[in-house]
């Protein structure tokens, strides 16, 4: 999904698919625009066609109007999880993606709770909106659970904003030969006893196994019956939500974001 705004007025466009597999775009201009304009492009990128659509829309706008400034808002940065070369023969995929975006020379690129600091560093004029600015809680939480080591900073920034005094850490245990997660461990889990509301937050939920394992520990081992919210910025949910919903209320934080925050 790509939305284009000229001076904050939405501009429609259509996507054309050719027989050879390529796509094309065409912007529907309502009237001639003679003055310099402010452009904002909001892009939800889910596949390679979406990437090409974004690049071609940007090119079409710059050919038609005098652009004063152009901002790209791209909530989920594709390939941000592929931010290192693990073995010979692999690309640095996040750099391939950011090079494409940088080639369009946006004045500002806004990403939401980016998974990788590498992606942020590689994007020109990048602004990363952190989770604590995206999420607008509807309840007070007694405790927070950091789901793994990579989420620790994100969790501590969030609890500082929300005034939560109790943080429990969890870690993923991986099989080093395969990279697959074999177990989730939680530390000092007994500290959660007596609480009525708990938040677990992270940037991405893909298959959700880590969160399911945390839910089992909290609900089954502690017999917790209170509020247990799973807050994620980018919900991929590749295995669906059914298993997660046995343990959590799911909140997609991106829905709460406004630029004024």
Describe the structure.
The protein is α/β, with parallel strands linked by helices and 261 residues long. It folds into two domains: 2-129, Rossmann fold, CATH 3.40.50; 133-256, Rossmann fold. It has helices at residues 48-64, 93-102, 117-122, 131-134, 152-162, 209-221, 242-245; strands spanning 2-6, 9-11, 13-17, 23-27, 37-43, 67-73, 108-112, 126-129, 143-146, 167-174, 181-186, 197-205, 227-235, 249-252. The protein has a six-stranded mixed sheet with strand order 2-1-5-6-7-8. The chain is elongated. The two termini are 23 Å apart. The model has no long low-confidence stretch (mean pLDDT 89).
| Mean pLDDT over the residues | 89
Strand order of the largest sheet: 2-1-5-6-7-8
Quote the distance from N terminus to C terminus: 23 Å
Uncertain runs: none
Order of helices and strands: EEEEEHEHEHEHEHEEEHEHE
Count of individual domains: 2
Global geometry: elongated
- Per DSSP, what share of the residues sits in E-state strands of 2 or more residues? 25-35%
Largest sheet: 6 strands, mixed
> What is the structural class?
alpha/beta
User: From the alpha-carbon coordinates, what is the Rg to the nearest angstrom?
Assistant: 21 Å
The proportion of residues forming helix, as a percent range, comes to 10-25%
**Per CATH, what is the topology of the largest domain?**
Rossmann fold
What's the CATH class label of the largest domain? Answer: Alpha Beta
């Amino acid at each position: 999904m790509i939305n284009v705004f000229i001076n904050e007025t939405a501009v429609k466009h259509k996507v054309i698919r050719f027989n050879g597999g390529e796509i094309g775009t065409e912007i529907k201009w309502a009237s001639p625009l003679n003055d310099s304009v402010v452009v904002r492009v909001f892009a939800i990128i889910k596949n390679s066609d979406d990437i090409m659509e974004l690049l071609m829309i940007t090119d079409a706008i710059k050919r038609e109007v005098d652009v004063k400034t152009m901002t790209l808002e791209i909530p989920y940065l594709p390939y941000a999880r592929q931010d290192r070369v693990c073995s010979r023969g692999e690309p640095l995929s996040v750099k391939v993606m950011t090079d494409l975006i940088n080639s369009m020379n946006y004045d500002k690129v806004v990403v939401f709770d980016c998974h990788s600091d590498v992606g942020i560093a590689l994007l020109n004029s990048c602004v990363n909106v952190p989770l604590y600015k995206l999420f607008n809680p509807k309840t007070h939480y007694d405790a927070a659970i950091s789901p793994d080591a990579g989420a620790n900073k994100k969790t501590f920034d969030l609890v500082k904003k929300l005034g939560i005094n109790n943080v429990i850490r969890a870690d993923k245990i991986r099989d080093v030969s395969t990279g697959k997660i074999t177990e989730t461990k939680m530390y000092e889990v007994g500290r959660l006893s007596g609480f009525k509301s708990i938040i677990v937050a992270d940037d991405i939920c893909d298959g959700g196994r880590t969160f399911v394992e945390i839910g089992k520990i909290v609900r089954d081992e502690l017999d917790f019956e209170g509020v247990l919210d799973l807050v994620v910025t980018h919900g991929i949910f590749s295995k669906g939500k059914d298993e997660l919903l046995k343990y959590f209320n799911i909140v997609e934080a991106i829905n709460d974001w406004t630029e004024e925050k």
